[in-house]
Fold each of these.
Amino acid sequence: MLYLGCHLSSTKGFLHMGEEALSIGANTFQFFTRNPRGSRAKAMDEQDAAALRRFMEEHGFSAFVAHAPYTLNACSANQQTREFALETMTDDLARLEYLPGNLYNFHPGSHVGQGAEEGIRQIAAALNQILQPGQHTTVLLETMAGKGSEVGRSFEELRAILEQVELKDKMGVCLDTCHVYDAGYDIVNDLDGVLREFDRVVGLDRLRAVHLNDSKNPMGSHKDRHEKIGQGSLGLEAAVRIVSHPLLQGLPFCLETPNELPGYQAEIALLRSRFQR
Ligand code: FE
Ligand code: FE
Ligand code: ZN
């Protein structure tokens, strides 16, 4: 089964996202848990959450990806910024308990001169406060492009975070194709080799979602500028190989390409037409 979807706006509620996804040929989706700038989330609508759960089951959706605000920084040099990330993520996870069995993705953070090792320690320390033994959401570290002082620019950095987390069964990784290519992993010419490397360093059993994006920049550029599928340095054939790869079957693939709904719908249709099982 190919679970393919895209980033959607959550402003009209939970069930609306499911319906919108279905209307563009998607069977998964992603959304921001709250405004990236502002921090306040709407009051939880339990009935709307229950309606989405039923809808996803009825229509054979995979888990969705709830994305933390990308402005959070769990390894800031500023203690208040770190605490804000911790509080926001704790609140997001409490809300997601109304939608059990889904995924919560976040950017590990930027160490801003503290060094990657200290950044990794702070991120793991935050996770050790945030994660609860009874939670029903898997928290994902996103692979990063390595822009500035971003942590998570290599599979080794992700492993180092995971190694320091106590509740490891609550953790996974989301692989962003634009980011890993920008980070220097050649998923265009050597997808098998990169997946082997991911398996060796992190473990493929930790891979729980994929962000499917083309990149405006060449491999190793550390830029993080997403491009439409087939219009960047990865190209369409690489995207087809990724969604069709035997080791990636069953994962949710979410597009985060620069598109409105009709553009997403066209990319989903194109990838479904080229999908090879
Ligand atoms: Fe992201
Ligand atoms: Fe992403
Ligand atoms: Zn990105």
Amino acid sequence: MRFFLCFLPLFICFSACQKTSPQQQAAYDIIPLPASMTPQPGHFVLEPGTRIVLEKEAESLREVALYFASVIHEISGFELKVKDKAAKKNNIIFQLDEKIAGDEAYHLSLSASQIIIQSRSARGAFYAIQTLRQLYADQQFPAVEIEDAPRFPYRGMHLDVARHFFDVAAVKRYIDQLAFHKLNHFHWHLTDDQGWRIEIKKYPKLTEIGAFRKGTLIGHYNDQPHQFDGKRYGGFYTQEEIKEVVAYAASRFVTIVPEIEMPGHAQAPLAAYPELGCTGEQLEVWQLWGVSENVYCPKEETFAFLEDVLTEVMALFPGKYIHIGGDESPKTQWEQNAFCQELIRREGLKDEHELQSYFIRRIERFVNSQGRRIIGWDEILEGGLAPNATVMSWRGISGGIEAAQSGHDVIMTPTSHCYLDYYQSDHPDEPLAIGGFIPLEKVYGYEPIPAELEGAARAHVLGAQANLWTEYIPTVEKLDYMIFPRLCALAELVWSPADKRDFDHFAQRLSPHLDRLKGMGIHCANHLYDLNAAIQPQAGKVEVKLNIHAKEGSIHYTRDGSEPTPQSPLYEGPLQLDSSAYIRAQAFRADGKPGRAWEQKIVFHKATGKHIQLTHQPHDKYKGGGNGSVLNGVLGSDERYGDAEWLGFDGNDFEAMIDMGQDAALIKAVHFRFFKGEGQWIYLPAEIHILTSSDGKEFKEIAVQEEISGENKVVEVTMPLHELAVRYLKIIAKNHGTIAPGRQGAGNKAWLFVDELRVY
Ligand code: TNX
């Protein structure tokens, strides 16, 4: 009963909000969209005498029926009784139906006289109740027939409580929201370099020492030099609290996947037990974000420690999966450690990657011997995958493809679509985030089953998950802002049928859904009325296209930098610019409320609007508004690389050919901008070459620059030229290459980010 009380304030709010704004058209706006839904005429009106009916055969649904009664109480104030016989009318009947395919499926038959909820288990009935919560408004439910079942069995959300700690109340609130959106797995990231958050009775120093750090980085990792706030920070869950959360999640049909990181991301436990490391050095819990070089040493003592820890963890968490991390584990200390080198020799391993694989296999053998399965991040593929492991594909989808093709289960959670710690808007007013750019429509457009997979391999994709890493998320308010509404998009892509997915329809349902969430006290982001701009070269001009996601509202703009009003020119189609301009625009809703203001200066130079051709395409994640973004007269953000301007190349060079046009232009200099964000593996180019040609075939090199350096996030380079007439210009900025050991992203390919190439 206790958890229902926790829910109470949310429901009071929810009901109040619903009463003040009954939205008729919003009646069927359910997220995630049910598999099949047929609206019917009429309404079922809730009355004080409405009965919840549980016939004898449906006794196993009692708990969920009582939960439903508590939901009704909170949203309507009515105290409905659960009875075993129907009244003459106005019944809400729970029935078990063995014929329904799947534990999570349900049928809802809702007419003016009764509501029938059919499922083959309590789980299905629970999801029917979540649908009813969304249908309810103003004391009534609109009549409808629904047949619903999820598309994927694994529908997950992750939360990192190591970088910032979230207490039991915040975690329960998070689980509530997962359940409300029909997600069924909560991946609880409990340990990392910056904090150990779970009480382990046998090793008290893990929390006495490992759960607290002396300070936290101020601002962003890319702001140099690093500064720290000097404030002790931390916290942990006692085992009693963990049990409470596990039981709470179970009552919401959410399975918790606990994560204990190894062999890397281990500086916090090593601060508590330095003897488990390779150096023996007395460390502190890390105050910086990123990947620490300090990792567990694969000695017997370490395995004994980890087995003890996992034994306590498995006693607390009843789910099938234990996540053992496995990501981003630098190999430098293993390379320099005599014991590790001897172990590699003794075990006949090829290198440190095989040593990591040896580490994970040993842990897997132990976890399997206890009747559980491991999940690991996709690095566990390197050096050979443990036999029964499930892989979480995060650095893209190739790890997932490889694992599924070799018969392993996978959960897709690529940084391209599922990282909710990344920016969701490129507006300069967005609160600080780690980087990246994953707007709502990007999440919504994610397809968890890679096209490369065929036949049986497709069934190994259990589903998808979104991750919330919390380096830059210290509060519940910011947590809400980062996950909502992107969590709603995730919920739909893992629950609803793929062929029903339609972003415009989703956006339309989202508006009333956001009101529901606000009514529950959730601090959602709302970018539905933000302007999305596409600014691209078009035959020597620059074309500016504007749009908003909301289905209503009109866009007004000015070209001279003055503030737009509903009286300013109405945007009716793309604007064509042939000289510099300062565009300001805003959406105005039917009720006169403005959306977020947008403005952009577009400054022409000699190559603005010209045709550009790239030898290597930018990575799908970072292709700006198109390749023309580097010649559109707009500078990429000084703070963030994930906007519509910067182009990002994953390991590749930037190689461009620009056609300056018939009347060869006289040029004196080329001006470059590069982004530097080593924390996100973004490095400056190794060198730049400029070549020219009169026919686009034969090129002559006219300038080279080596040694590109700079302290800021955006590094500008000017290459002066002897004034010359140029028809074709070729520009090559060489990628930094593989990242050296000891630097962030070591061993991976560096990213190269390029924006406006200004030609004067
Ligand atoms: C990578 S995803 C990490 C985390 C960071 C995250 C930030 C993964 C397995 N490792 O340690 O918090 O990027 O986006």
